[in-house]
Specification:
Elements lengths: L14 H5 L5 E5 L5 E5 L9 H4 L14 E7 L2 H6 L5 H11 L3 E7 L5 E6 L21 H10 L4 E5 L1 H11 L6 E6 L7 H8 L5 E8 L8 E6 L2 E6 L4 H7 L22 E5 L3 H4 L10 E5 L5 H5 L3 E6 L1 H6 L14 H11 L1 H9 L3 H12 L1
Parallel strand pairs: 4-6, 6-7, 7-11
Antiparallel strand pairs: 1-2, 3-12, 3-13, 4-5, 8-9, 9-10, 11-12
């Protein structure tokens, strides 16, 4: 039976709940808004499958260094709709054109983030762009296996831990499965996201990474109730809470699936620093960093309608350390979450980060409790 004493030991991938033959594991939200497995011991038969598929308990061995490229989609419209260079869409289109299925993260009806699949080219648009919230996996693992068992091509995109969870859940390799890892700084709490949106009524559009002012100076856009907010990333309280690690899951501070333990075929990220490494290809409209972990994928990559530029692994990591690095838990993270339910996101964030003497004293006293 799966047990853990520290919440950093669960990444929330849902592999355990998905594999349970008795369906006695439910993913239950904790006080911070993250989902954790809860086992009905009256139904559990102690088969051990939940333990066997856990990517935290069973991380893979380190691999050789991946083959690295800078890449740019030749379709400028798709590239502008994407967070970086638009390479995910090309892999996804290739899968759909073979009669396959593509899984990815998209917004749900209430602007929560969920994992879904599409079998059409038109359906790919909702998967473009970053979603800085941990996605609800739903039945994505079971659906992926169902399609694979039918012999269909499947592209599954997600965070490193989601892909590790999927691979462990499947328990065997499938030649028709392509896993595309989205480089991950950490996964923010859905509760934090919902609190941030609580005063924004009648939302009709959200974009975490708009390139309306350029790729490197991306903006967050929200349209709601007849209003339109265009917020520089450096001024968005939500983005600042995310990048300062206040809102991310405890397991993100001990990630079991970073590049040295990745189970993905290919990793896609922003190629930050391309203006320093190869400035002639930087037009501030987005460039993807592509790291191929599975050499069998290289022919597929070279078939894509994009510009490819071989790169050095160490040079690429110099400007995007989150691909391999985990970050330390902020001293005031628990203080932030203790205020969230009582005060709402904005007040909780400001009280956690302000240099006001009274707030600083309160934070210090809280840490000593």
């Amino acid at each position: 039976m799966l047990t853990f004493t520290d919440k950093s030991q669960c990444c929330g991938c849902t592999a355990c709940a998905s594999i349970c033959p008795k369906q006695c594991i439910q993913m239950i939200e904790d006080k911070e808004g993250f989902l954790y497995p809860q086992i009905d011991t009256t139904v559990c038969v102690d088969c051990g499958l939940c333990e066997k598929v856990c990517p935290v308990l069973h991380p893979v061995q380190a691999k050789e260094r991946p083959t690295v490229f800078a890449a740019v989609n030749n379709n400028s419209e798709v590239r502008m709709q994407s967070s970086s260079g638009g390479i995910f869409t090309l892999f996804a289109e290739q899968t759909i054109q073979k009669g396959g299925v593509v899984f990815g993260a998209c917004f749900g009806k209430e602007w929560n983030v969920v994992h879904r699949y599409t079998e059409t080219l038109e359906g790919l648009s909702v998967f473009r762009g970053s979603k800085y919230v941990q996605s609800d996996m739903g039945t994505s693992f079971q659906d992926t296996k169902r399609f694979l068992d039918q012999g269909r091509e499947v592209l599954f995109s997600g965070t490193p831990c989601q892909i590790a969870g999927l691979k462990n859940y499947l328990r065997k390799s499938y030649p028709t499965l392509l896993t595309v890892e989205v480089a991950c700084h950490g996964v923010p709490s859905p509760k934090v996201w919902n609190s941030y949106l609580s005063d924004k009524k009648n939302i009709n559009y959200i974009n975490f990474r708009s390139k309306c002012k350029g790729w490197k100076g991306y903006h967050m856009i929200l349209e709601y109730g007849g209003h339109k907010e265009i917020i520089p990333s450096g001024e968005s309280l939500y983005i600042k809470a995310f990048l300062s690690d206040l809102s991310v899951r405890p397991s993100c501070f001990a990630c079991p699936a970073k590049i040295n333990h990745s189970q993905s075929d290919v990793l896609i990220a922003d190629f930050w620093g391309i203006d320093q490494i190869q400035p002639e290809i930087d037009d501030n409209k987005g460039c993807s960093l592509v790291m191929v972990n599975n050499s069998e994928i290289l022919p597929l990559l070279h078939q894509l309608d994009c510009q490819l530029y071989p790169q050095n692994f160490d040079c690429a990591l110099k400007y995007n350390s989150a691909i391999v690095k985990t970050f330390h838990q902020p001293a005031n993270r628990k203080f932030f979450f203790s205020l969230l339910s009582r005060c709402g996101f904005s007040t909780a964030y400001r009280m956690t980060t302000t240099n006001n003497i009274i707030c600083s004293l309160v934070r210090t006293l809280y840490r000593k409790l």
